[in-house]
Design brief:
This protein has helices at about 1-40, 125-145; strands at about 45-55, 65-75, 85-90, 100-110, 110-115. By secondary structure, it is α+β, with helices and mostly antiparallel strands. The protein is elongated and about 70 Å long. About 10% of the residues are buried.
């Protein structure tokens, strides 16, 4: 009886390990696909940074540093000639933009108040998940052989 439960536990472990790489890879492919779809339908415009909204995150440890996330606000001219403002899709500590700087952005025609900086970085999350999925898949395959 004890051997049966150990064997079924092993099968469950291999099932989970076997599915995990597929889930990671599938999620990564979906993220790359949705990013590509967005880049195809979005308007690519030159915008000017008019503000930097900052969000401060306190340090986790007393000796740590505060994290400052910046979300640029852009002003751009829409195809109909009107001036619109759009805020960056996600905050980041890595934005090096300053007020007054110009940047190429993608704007969704359906949500013109949200912008993404025109960059290949839009694909990074999906590509990372695909890579992790492939690496864990090889690892599970090597464990099983």
């Amino acid at each position: 009886m004890n051997g049966d439960s150990a064997e079924s536990g092993l099968w469950l472990l291999f099932l989970i390990l076997g599915l995990f790489p597929w889930i990671l890879t599938g999620l990564g492919l979906w993220l790359v696909w949705t990013a590509w779809q967005f880049s195809q339908r979005a308007l690519s415009v030159t915008a000017r940074v008019v503000a930097l909204n900052e969000e401060r995150i306190p340090p986790r440890r007393p000796s740590g540093k505060e994290t400052v996330l910046r979300r640029p606000v852009f002003e751009y001219v829409a195809p109909d000639g009107s001036a619109l403002r759009a805020e960056a899709f996600a905050p980041s500590p890595g934005y090096k933009l300053v007020v007054g700087a110009r940047a190429r952005i993608w704007v969704d025609p359906d949500l013109p108040e949200i912008a993404r900086i025109n960059s290949m970085a839009i694909y990074a999350p999906g590509l990372l998940l695909i890579g992790f999925g492939l690496i864990t898949g090889v690892g599970v395959w090597l464990l099983g052989s």
